[in-house]
Amino acid sequence: MADNAGTGGVAGFDPARIEEIINRGIPHCGELGIHVERIGDGTCCLRLDYQERLVGDPASGVLHGGVITTLTDSVSGMSVYMALKKFVPIATLDLRIDYLRPSTPHEPLFAEAHCFKTTRQIAFVRGLAYNNDRDDPVASCAGTFMINSSDTPPLSGRSKQGREAGQ
Amino acid sequence: MSERFSELERTVARARADGDWRPLFRAIPYLSFMGLEMIEDAADGRLVCVLPEDPKFIGNPLLPALHGGVVGALLEAAAVIELMAVQETARVPKIINLTVDYLRSAKPVRTFAQGSVTKPGRRVASVHVEAWQGDRAKPVATANAHFLLA
Questions:
Q1: Which residues of chain B have a CB within 8 Å of the CB of A25?
Q2: Mutation site for A-interface testing, chosen from B5, B100, B140 by largest number of A Cβ within 10 Å
Q3: Number of domains into which chain A is organized
Q4: pLDDT, tens only, B106-129
Q5: Quick one: pLDDT at residue B87?
Q6: What CA–CA distances, in Å, run from B125 to A102, B4, B135?
Q7: Which domain holds residue A22?
Q8: CATH number (domain holding residue A39)
Q9: What burial class does residue B122 get, using C-beta atoms within 10 Å of its C-beta: 0-12 exposed, 13-18 middle, 19+ buried?
Q10: According to the model, what pLDDT value does residue B1 have?
Q11: Chain B nearest CA to A31, separation (Å)
């Protein structure tokens, strides 16, 4: 992670756990090899390296839209954790994705999200997906999340569950 | 643009003619990765897209639940297939946007999705899609998507 500045100092909130959640807590993110690029105050950026198996158009080598959906949904959820500064169960209520241009073959895909508003029950997020040039985005997204969506403990690396007990 | 159909468009044309979409799924790496299959709705013969049960699709292992992105991908795939099945040309539609409503937690089990074209325009088409698991009357997610046809 390059830049963890501005993540606040809420007791018991360890922003480094975002990386554990992505790498090990969410099996589908682990399967795709998604990595945390950086985190900040209410923000997160994830990276997915180009893979042939994720191509949606074999003629051009462009990634399938479903890959962008998965990356933006994941990064949006992580930005909610970074805004709440605690790990509570959250669930996507809705997610809108605008596909602005095809993802460039062989370049990594980044997705960043900003959770710009939280209420007691709902978090509001917007974000972007891009290749190497952030000023030429592949997709934009807007989503809302339910906070405390279940009684089940939040996503966690199984070995770390004990740490949640005091929260 | 060339008048000749691309390899993918020929695959689409064949699938529409003989109703077998498996060659198209095999031709698209991401759909193979998802293990998507098509079945015909017993009631009306329309196409239903099927996502198999696989632990690699899990987003939350503690509930457990499918990853929302996987559900979104299934909905998008079902929307494209429905559009290609009903449209006149073999051209592969380009997705403009997708709005997914997550209605209930999707269990990590076999999941179905079916699209219906709400507006078959000349340049742009709108498709509504529903995804369900055990009970069709209780969809786990719905989506609306716009596609560019020309």
A1: 61
A2: B100
A3: 1
A4: 999 999 999 999 998 889 999 999
A5: 82
A6: 19, 23, 28
A7: 17-50+60-152
A8: 3.10.129.10
A9: exposed
A10: 46
A11: 6
Residue type, B49: C
Contact B28 A57 (CB under 8 A): yes
Per-residue pLDDT at A2: 42
Tell me the angle at which helices B68-86 and A65-84 cross, rounded to the nearest 10 degrees.
150
The domain B7-148 belongs to what CATH superfamily? Hotdog Thioesterase (3.10.129.10)
Residue closest to B7 by CA, chosen among B92, B78, B95, B77: B92
Indicate yes or no: CB of B102 within 8 angstroms of CB of A97. Answer: no
Query: Which sequence spans correspond to the domains of chain B?
Result: 7-148
- Tokens 């690699």: give the residue: B56
DSSP alpha helix (H) spans, chain B: 7-18, 22-27, 29-34, 68-86
ipTM of the complex model: 0.92
pLDDT grade, residue B35 (50/70/90)? very high
Instruction: Determine contact: A58 vs chain B, CB below 8 A.
Output: yes
> Across residues B87-100, what is the average pLDDT?
88
Nearest-CA distance B99 → chain A (Å): 4
pLDDT tens digits, one per residue of A105-124: 999 999 999 999 999 999 99
Q: Which of A110, A100, A105 lies closest to A50 in space, CA to CA? A: A105
Of B8, B74, B105, the CB nearest to A91: B105
Of A116 and B8, which is predicted with more confidence?
Answer: A116
